[in-house]
Amino acid sequence: MKYMKPANLFQELTKTNSRNRSRLLGLDVGDKYVGLAVSDVNNKIASPLSVLLRKKSNIDLMASDFELLISQLSLTGFVIGYPFDRQQRNSADAVQVKLFIDDLCKTGKLEGVRYTFWDECFTSKNVEFLLKPLNLHPVHYKTIMDKFAAVGILQGYLDFVNRSHTSESTK
């Protein structure tokens, strides 16, 4: 896996997108689950996809799941939610995300996959406010929460890069 700055990942995507419709996968990495969201073929809209169980013992299986998704959905990169700390300290959540990426890299299954980090600030809290009035069963609540947190991360990224891309092309 190869880290790219957010703008660079989108520039690479727009280069390849004219030939074959490439999409992005958004990830909300938690202690127990990884919520997934996928962009549309025009990379404008994020939609919920699924939730993967996260354990140290199943990282190979998760990497295989990602390989399958890359193939099935024509994914070109990952946008991974990252809890940026305004005081530049590494929080426990930030360490968890980095360990997850390191573990995925060690599998060797995702060579060439590009990824970037995107601020996940308030994504879970926003989803929580939307879901609370629905009084969902706790299992459904957690699954929906993780998927839609991933949607919030990916949609925030897509909105930013598309806005930046549009303003650059009008100059």
Automatic annotation (TrEMBL):
Keywords: Cytoplasm, Hydrolase, Nuclease, Ribosome biogenesis. It holds the Pfam family RuvX. One of its GO terms (molecular function) is hydrolase activity. InterPro entries: RNaseH-like_sf, YqgF, YqgF/RNaseH-like_dom, YqgF/RNaseH-like_dom_sf. It comes from Coffea arabica (Arabian coffee). The gene is LOC113703174. Residues 22-127 form the YqgF/RNase H-like domain. This is Uncharacterized protein LOC113703174. It comes from the Eukaryota. NCBIfam families: RNAse_H_YqgF. GO terms for biological process: rRNA 5'-end processing. HAMAP family: Nuclease_YqgF (MF_00651).
